Amino acid sequence: MQQIPIEHILFVSTALFFIGMYGLFTRRNMITMLMSIELILNSVNINFVAFNKYLFPGKLDGIFFTIFIITVAAAEAAITIAIIINLYRTHKSIDVEDATELKY
Amino acid sequence: MADYSYIALVPLLPLATFVLLGLAGKNRLVKWSGYIGSATMLGSAVISLYAAYQYFFVNGKTGDAYAEITALRYTWLEFAPGLSIDMGIILDSISVMMLVVVSFISLMVHIYSVGYMKGEERVTTYFSFLSLFTFSMLALVVSSNIFQIYIFWELVGVSSYLLIGFYYQKPSAVAASKKAFIVTRFADLGFLVGILILAFYSGSFDIGTIINRATDSQSEAFTGLVSAGFLGMSALTWSLVLVFAGGAGKSAMFPLHIWLPDAMEGPTPVSALIHAATMVVAGVYLVARLFPVFYIDEIAMQVVTYVGAISALVAAIIACTQTDIKRILAYSTMSQIGYMMFALGVSGYGGEEGLGYTASMFHLFTHAFFKSLLFLGAGAIIHFVHSNEMKDMGGLRKWMPVTHITFLIACLAIAGVPPFAGFFSKEEILLAAYQSDKIVYGIGLFVAALTAFYMFRLYFSVFWKKEAADASHHGEGTWSMKLPLIVLAGCTVVVGFIHFGNYISSDGAPLPTHFDIRFSIAPVVSAVAGILLAAYLYKKESDRPAKFATALGRLYRAAYKKFYIDEIYLFITKKIIFNLIGAPAAWFDRNIVDGIMNLLASGTARTAALIKGMQSGRVQSYALYFFGGVVALAILLIYIWI
Fold first, then answer.
1. Which end of chain A is more exposed for a tag (fewer CB within 10 A), N or C?
2. ipTM of the assembly?
């Protein structure tokens, strides 16, 4: 079976990372920003898995990291959504531009 | 060795009173504070008299001489093994004597104050300050450690400051208290440096150890002290002169005496206790404590002698011209302390040579009684006529018989008329001076005549001179005021007959004092001459004093203005120190030191104003900065550092 070269996989993960970055910087909707952050995290996950497979085939460190990140991301999503709901209650909006009170 | 640790109670009882009355505040215990203070002082006085009896007559002697007994010792601060500051109680003949003097005079003053301060405001505060002073003074005289002396030295200074400024509504009292504190504090700077030099070379703060090491010419401490030098004087001389400067400040020696006359702004019983009998002799006591060390340095002894002699002379001359009754007594105190100082200065160590030391301590002892008697009498007079000025007095002998007789006894004692106490002690001082330094003897004799003159000038002006207005409605004073006068007058008559040399001498061994009738002719004749002159000038109201003053011309005016010493101090401080040092220092502080601070602050504020826009509250721009930072770091790490 022919292996997929690592460059292909890295290309996918890089693309995913920058798509997430673009979404994070341009979307005003906080839910969309949360989704973008998930994309970034997943691009990192892909990197971990790929490098684990290609550089250290005998080990599982990268896989463990991935599982950690998925767990943390789940917790983080729960917290973020809670924050967004609370913001919505006070501001009647989930537009990030409307919540700028924390400034000088 | 007998157990003397109960001595600790002597200072601790007044301390307890201070804490109790101090916590009571100014409005509570008003009626009782005087009785509480007097009762605890009675306890202290009884204990110290008992201790003195035990020490002098029962078990103080080792062999033939009175030994030093360490009653208590407690290591307070240990800097390094071997170098520690101990708190302790030491008993030797002079500290036991001082215990008796301080506690007894303090008891008399407490009793007197009950009557004198009746109806005043803040009586409780007054008695608490008085107890604080008594505590510190008693603890000072029994200190075994020179650093402990320094601590209590400052404490007596503070309590003196508090009591001088007791009438704090009067600006003059406030100024006087500040002056006293600043002048003595300035002198204490010298004291501290002197202590540190001594302790540095001898490696100990303990007085006994310092004396042992510094007087042993084989020891390392001695060679260090003598060989190290600065500006042509050895470290030993420097340290002793500086220690003496501290003592001179506290004892109001020329030229640091300016605070003492002003200190008379305080209540009169305070002047009797602090500024006559006890605190001001602390300087003499200090020199006596370190006497073996002073004795090995000739220059320091010369300084002590001549500062004492000049103070005695200057103060006596000024006292002849003053008109404020308490100020006359203040200058007289200064003059008598000058006597004690030069007696120490001319003294030798051990045996017959140590006569000056014995004489000095004897004079300290007798002076405490008759000078506190004079001040308490003056207090009674001031209480009666409500004025300090002699021109408001006169003819009071009719209305104040008890005060009159006791005051007369004290005047005779201070003038040196036999058989009162001052005669014996002054006699010994003059003999000691005669044996070692004829110039000092001459000064002493002249001052003896002046003393008799100004004391009887005071006496005749107050009690004779003119007929007093009818004052029969006004009593002489309560018994609590008369009793101390009578007791002290009794002491003044009696204490001169103590053979002081048997108990107190420079090396502890009994010193037989010879009483030579031929020698005492000159002092007695000069004293009587002074008294007769005073009687001629002041017994009846006449224009003789005015004529006399005109005849003396410039000298009289200079003495009346206290030799312009206050003015010289003002000139030095205001014109020279304020303008040449103070003003530039203030400019430097305002412009350079504050300027740097202001520059830092305004720079920070300006930078903050420039960049605060970055904190916009927009989460996305923060993320963008963060990402930019990550990219910049990545570029830095990948392309530039590696």
1. N
2. 0.87
